[in-house]
Specification:
Elements lengths: L1 H19 L10 E11 L4 E11 L6 E2 L7 E2 L2 E2 L1 E5 L3 E9 L6 E6 L5 E6 L7 E3 L12 E3 L12
Antiparallel strand pairs: 1-2, 2-3, 2-7, 4-5, 4-8, 6-7, 8-9, 10-11
C-alpha cells in the first residue's frame, strides 16, 4: 500500500509540475544601442555633446527611438532633434570650463535607469607639421602634449 501511495504521489507531483509550466516562450526584449559624442574646444571654452539611441536585435537592424523623459548631460536637459526620421539626436551646447568626466543619463523604454560616462583627457597643444593643409596631399597632425587612448579619435 505504501508503494502505491508513493507512486501516486510522484505522478501527482509530476503532473502538477508540468501543468504549472508556462508554455509561452518569454519574448526577448530588443537591445538598446547608444551613440555618444563629446567635444571640448579649449580656447573657445565650447562644450558640445550628442547622444542618439536605437533599438533592435542588432545594430544593423535597430531603429531610432526617442527616450521618453528625455536625456540629460551633466545634469542639464538635452534638446531632441528629429533628423528627417533617420535619427533622433539629443544635443547640448554651452560655454564652460573643462570638467571631465562627462555623464549622460536617461531611462530605457521600460523605465530602467541608463547612464553612460565618458572620461576623456585633453590632448593639450597640437600643430600641423608642414603648416598647410592640402586636399591632395593631406597633412600631418602633431600632438605635442597628451595622447589618444583606445577608442578616442580627433574629429
Amino acid at each position: 500500500m505504501n508503494k502505491k501511495f508513493t507512486f501516486a504521489l510522484l505522478i501527482g507531483l509530476a503532473a502538477a509540475t508540468f501543468a504549472c509550466r508556462n508554455n509561452e516562450t518569454e519574448k526577448e526584449k530588443p537591445d538598446i544601442y547608444g551613440d555618444f559624442f563629446v567635444r571640448y574646444l579649449g580656447p573657445e571654452r565650447e562644450l558640445k555633446a550628442y547622444a542618439s539611441f536605437s533599438q533592435g536585435d542588432s545594430v544593423q537592424n535597430s531603429v531610432p527611438i526617442e527616450m521618453e523623459g528625455g536625456v540629460s548631460f551633466q545634469g542639464s536637459g538635452m534638446e531632441a532633434r528629429n533628423l528627417q526620421g533617420q535619427q533622433i539626436r539629443y544635443v547640448y551646447q554651452t560655454q564652460a570650463d573643462y570638467t571631465a568626466p562627462y555623464t549622460f543619463k536617461t531611462k530605457t523604454p521600460d523605465g530602467q535607469p541608463l547612464e553612460h560616462t565618458i572620461a576623456m583627457e585633453g590632448i593639450g597643444q597640437f600643430s600641423i607639421q608642414e603648416g598647410v593643409i592640402s586636399k591632395s596631399k593631406g597633412m600631418t597632425l602633431v600632438v605635442e602634449k597628451g595622447t589618444l587612448k583606445k577608442g578616442e579619435s580627433i574629429v
